[in-house]
Amino acid sequence: MILVGQYDSPYVRRVAVTLHHYGLFFTRNPISVFTDATAMAKINPLVRIPSLVLDDGEVLIDSAAIIDYLDETVGPAHALTPRFGAERRHMLQLIAAATGAIDKAGAMVYERHFHGAGGVNEDWLARCRIQLEGALQWLDERLTGEWFVSGRFSQADLTTGAMLGYLRLRVPEVLAGSRFLRLKGLAAACEALPSFIAARPSANEVMPG
Ligand SMILES: N[C@@H](CCC(=O)N[C@@H](CS)C(=O)NCC(=O)O)C(=O)O
Fold first, then answer.
1. What are the chain's domains?
2. Interval 84-102: pLDDT, tens
3. CA–CA distance, 184 with 190 (Å, rounded to integer)
4. CA pseudo-torsion sign 88, 3, 23, 147
5. Which among 8, 48, 103 is the best mutation to test ligand 1's pocket, defined by most ligand atoms within 8 Å of the CB?
């Protein structure tokens, strides 16, 4: 399997961490959505990351669909998301808040990056930040132990960990101060896992200048 995308993307990273956690072998094509858009369009018509190219050439796009495939591959006994029931519903809600937070943080990053000083819409930025912080607060309140659900590491922890890693990299001001302490503990626990260490963004995985 070939994972397409760079690890500064929390969506790519959550797929990579899941692959490592499951012990599934993969290689990576670290092309950029921005500087390699033509090559990317041949893989994913949306010109987005991640994509996962399977060994028979089939291409999966979207991190949720890719992780669903990986869960099916390892089977319910090993999958980080339960197949059904109240625990699954709860976990999917946590993951929705975490990926929603990624989307809001991403909107802030793109607004600043593509409009530049003077062109940035401050009202839009402020709205995104309120939405992002709302999701962080909601998640923080639900983290009552080391992990979110049933005292064990799950896809809710993994995706939230990937989201927090992205915030630290791209919008660190949101994590400044003494707020979201439980989430910060979760981030530290995630970043210490071998699966997270194996999927750390490298210094050359940056937004285009
Ligand atoms: N829902 C998608 C979101 C993927 C996504 O937003 N990827 C970003 C990088 S973090 C991207 O490709 N951005 C470039 C663009 O949308 O133009 C998923 O879960 O894979």
1. 2-79 (3.40.30.10), 86-193 (1.20.1050.10)
2. 999 999 999 999 999 999 9
3. 10
4. negative
5. 48
